[in-house]
Amino acid sequence: MEWIDARENLCLVGQVGTGKSHLLVALGVAAVQAGHRVRDYTAAELVETLYRGLADNSVGKVLDTLLRNDLIMVDEVGFAPLDDTGAQLLFRFVAAAYERQALGIASHWPFESWGRFLPEHNTAVSLLDRLLHYANVVVTEGDSYRMREARTKGGTRLNKPDNPRGGD
């Protein structure tokens, strides 16, 4: 839990089904047990929350409330593409947390591909610059646990998907 006290980020990146979400949840539970305040979102939930703040002109208050936590976990980053406003809101969140709070991020996209779901190149570069500056990066590898379990149950022949970077 030293990374939380140091306000460093944890970035989990890897193929679909390789345990990123489970690891993120386990670390969140351990952080709570260690006395940290933790908030957990999917990327879609976080952006939706920030959109609501934008609509009623309270996005600053929403960010301040989020930043009262010691660790903010965001799963499924890149699962769905963001529009320009959503990308700017996500950047604003990461920039606000930079050097102030620890972030736990999970994504099936390698960092060099984040431009595929962040529509503006400069936004992607600036977001990653802040996210990775003080980051511990863990790359998960291997086959999907879910697909491996489905294969062991038998009966259905499952082929590997053509797009190994599809949803998690």
Secondary structure: elements and pairs:
Blueprint: H1 2-5, E1 9-14, H2 20-33, E2 38-42, H3 43-55, H4 59-66, E3 71-75, H5 84-97, E4 102-107, H6 121-133, E5 135-140, H7 145-153
Parallel strand pairs: 1-4, 1-5, 2-3, 3-4
State the main characteristics.
Rossmann fold; 45% helix; five-stranded parallel sheet; 168 residues; alpha/beta; 7 helices; 5 strands
Order of helices and strands: HEHEHHEHEHEH
Radius of gyration (CA) equals 17 Å
Low-confidence stretches: none
Known CATH architecture: 3-Layer(aba) Sandwich
Q: In angstroms, what separates the terminal alpha carbons?
A: 26 Å
Total number of domains: 1
Mean pLDDT: 90
How many strands, which pairing sense, and closed or not: the largest β-sheet? 5 strands, parallel
What is the CATH topology? Rossmann fold
Question: How are the strands of the largest sheet arranged?
Answer: 2-3-4-1-5
Global structural class: alpha/beta
Architecture overview:
There is one protein chain. The chain is an alpha/beta fold. 45% of the residues lie in helices and 17% in strands. It has a single domain (2-153), classed as Rossmann fold. Strands 2-3-4-1-5 form a 5-stranded parallel beta sheet. α5 links the parallel β3 and β4. α3 (43-55) crosses α5 (84-97) and α5 runs parallel beside α6 (121-133). The longest helix is centred in the N-terminal third of the chain and has 14 residues, at 20-33.
